[in-house]
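sry for the spam today, last one i promise. struct tokens for design, 667 residues
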């Protein structure tokens, strides 16, 4: 479908949805009428569109219910996830100066929410959530024309409403009910979360609601935050909040009680780090106020900080707030200080970009580099920023590029003795690998690998790229390496052994496409191919085996293929068996130990295990019919009432040269 047709189709769907929404609202309104005369009058004066429909619904809200309706609509419009009925009931009952949640202020019947707001809201009984009735409801209340319309009192300013919800959440966390501090046991923590419905939401989302607050002079907000963070009588409340905050780093909301210990085991508490926590939430106005008041020290380093921040700058980098980071650096924070879980602010900033949902924003990273962040600084443990960033579980190509542009030294080796390029080949992503390959990461060859070739030559560097890339089947990078340097690599006899390592790794892992790309540069006489056939067959990779069989000059009656057929049958690799039979290996052949496919299949059958006396019968002095390969082991079979031994294939030692490992950890 063309983009124009797709746009037209989507527009038609939106119109259709809008019509259904309009019809539902009319039916809901009519269903509330109490006699036929009112119903007929309503039918004659139906509003033409959704906005007019919403105006009529809002106009029908009584003055007595107006304040309550505004609270309901503000919460539902700005909530950062669907609210449960109880969460909303507690939220709309809160006042900014509350010290206790008075049960008498809670709605007696939550159904009143729908009765007051009508089709503007939707109550999902099964999911126990309350939401706006449709996305168009939010659009209606936040639209600019609402400001000057007949119901301007209902206009919702998203920014200001978020700040108000942040203050309400903070008020909730400062209630006397949480003065006792964190719960010591999972059961008590679960009870608290269940009893106080808004507790988890307020703990998790008050910071995000306040994220855009920039006015350090707004004392109605600042004083509320400062009270929770600094006032002595709020120590218990702060710890109760932090228990949820830390638990949610590791557990979902519905399993939060599993995280009871996450905060309790920490050595550093509120009195040490109010500035750190303000920065972690990305609260510019609060951080600025704290610095002005001398609360916190931008130079303080918490080396035993179990929260993972270590200092205020690292915390700010984790939040992704450029404004807070700039504030701290201008106040004297050291961009190269090392503390916390990730040690360097630069590493924290890049990882924050990678883990954050939505479009990535590397302005904080760029700011740190512009202000002296050392991209080659060695962290405790021996790793540098490039090494840490390139091998993060969630990789960012942009983060790696920024490190390289800033002069990251690719020759530096991490704590395990590998460069960033080599580690990415083992643990990283294809995109990051290609970036490092193109920037020359393969030039720095591991000493164990280099001893098999001539250091510094194009062939050695090229085969190094192939060997590192084959670990995770980076075929596209291998294709480019071969296009750029394939003739030199395969034409240099000094790297032939290194090439064998590449082939062995590809065969053992079943990377047949990798092998296909190398085949045009070699021929059937390449000594590694027969051993690769053994590896592919013993590991159970029929496609890889087929590619190798087509490339080799082995006859079907070759003893190695007979060995592989029996081995594959014993291991249950039916695909490999089928490939070998199709290639022409006889189903009646015997391997070097005298085993046949039929015999090994019977012996390893779950349904009909064979008595292992076939190996030997010392009592009668009978020689065994066949030898017992070293790769066979016996273990009890528990499928029957009386245990019988069962033969199990374990390893390819029966057929590969004794003690020889074909795939080398040369790098």
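last one done:
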């Amino acid at each position: 479908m063309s983009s124009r047709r797709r746009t037209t189709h989507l527009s038609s769907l939106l119109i259709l949805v809008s019509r259904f929404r309009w019809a539902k609202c009319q039916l809901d309104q009519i269903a509330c009428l109490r006699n036929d005369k009112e119903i007929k009058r309503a039918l004659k004066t139906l509003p033409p569109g959704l906005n007019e429909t919403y105006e009529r619904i809002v106009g029908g809200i009584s003055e007595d219910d107006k304040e309550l309706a505004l609270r309901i609509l503000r919460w539902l419009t700005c909530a950062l996830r669907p609210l449960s009925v109880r969460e909303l009931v507690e939220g709309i009952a809160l006042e900014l100066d509350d010290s206790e949640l008075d049960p008498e202020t809670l709605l007696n019947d939550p159904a009143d929410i729908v009765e007051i707001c009508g089709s503007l809201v939707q109550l999902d009984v099964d999911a126990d959530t309350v939401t706006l009735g449709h996305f168009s409801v939010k659009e209606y209340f936040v639209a600019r024309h609402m400001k000057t319309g007949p119901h301007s009192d209902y206009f919702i300013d998203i920014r200001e409403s978020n700040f108000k919800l942040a203050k309400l959440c903070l008020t909730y966390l400062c209630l006397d009910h949480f003065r006792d501090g964190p719960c010591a046991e999972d059961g008590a923590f679960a009870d608290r979360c269940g009893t106080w419905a808004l507790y988890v939401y307020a703990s998790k989302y008050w910071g995000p609601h306040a994220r855009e607050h920039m006015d350090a002079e707004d004392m109605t907000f600042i004083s509320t935050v400062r009270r929770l963070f600094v006032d002595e009588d709020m120590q218990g409340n702060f710890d109760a909040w932090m228990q949820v905050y830390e638990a949610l780093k590791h557990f979902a909301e519905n399993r939060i009680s599993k995280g009871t210990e996450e905060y309790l085991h920490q050595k550093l508490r509120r009195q040490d780090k109010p500035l750190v926590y303000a920065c972690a939430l990305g609260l510019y106005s609060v951080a600025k106020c704290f610095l002005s008041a001398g609360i916190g020290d931008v130079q303080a380093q918490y080396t035993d900080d179990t929260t993972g921040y270590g200092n205020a700058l690292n915390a700010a980098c984790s939040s992704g707030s450029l404004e807070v980071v700039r504030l701290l650096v201008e106040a004297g924070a050291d961009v190269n200080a090392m503390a916390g879980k990730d040690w360097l602010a630069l590493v924290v900033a890049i990882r924050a970009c990678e883990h954050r949902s939505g479009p990535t924003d590397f302005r904080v990273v760029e700011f740190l580099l512009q202000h002296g962040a050392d991209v080659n600084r060695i962290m405790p443990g021996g790793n540098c920023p490039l090494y840490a960033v390139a091998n993060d579980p969630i990789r960012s190509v942009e983060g790696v590029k920024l490190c390289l542009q800033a002069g990251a030294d690719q020759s530096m080796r991490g704590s395990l003795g590998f460069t960033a390029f080599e580690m990415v080949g083992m643990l990283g992503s294809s995109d990051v690998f290609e970036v490092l390959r193109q920037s020359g990461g393969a030039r720095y060859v591991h000493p164990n690998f280099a001893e098999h070739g001539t250091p510094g030559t194009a062939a050695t560097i090229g085969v190094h790229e192939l060997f590192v890339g084959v670990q995770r089947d980076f075929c596209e990078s291998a294709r480019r390496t071969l296009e750029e340097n394939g003739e030199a690599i395969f034409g240099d006899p000094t790297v032939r052994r290194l090439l064998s390592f590449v082939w062995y790794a590809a065969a053992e892992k079943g990377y047949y496409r990798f092998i296909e790309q190398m085949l045009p540069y070699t021929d059937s006489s390449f000594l590694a191919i027969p051993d690769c056939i053994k590896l592919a067959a013993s590991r159970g990779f029929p496609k890889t085996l087929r590619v190798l069989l087509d490339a080799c000059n082995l006859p079907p009656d070759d003893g190695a293929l007979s060995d592989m057929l029996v081995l594959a049958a014993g291991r249950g690799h039916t695909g490999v068996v089928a490939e070998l039979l199709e290639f022409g290996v006889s189903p009646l052949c015997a391997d070097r130990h005298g085993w046949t496919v039929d015999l090994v299949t019977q012996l390893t059958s779950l349904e009909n295990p064979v008595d292992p006396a076939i190996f030997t019968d010392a009592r009668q002095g009978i020689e065994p019919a066949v030898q017992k390969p070293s790769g066979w082991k016996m273990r009890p079979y528990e499928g029957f009432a009386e245990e019988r031994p069962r033969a199990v294939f374990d390893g390819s030692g029966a057929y590969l040269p004794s003690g020889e490992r074909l795939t080398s950890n040369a790098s």
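The two ends are 49 Å apart (CA to CA). ok im logging off now
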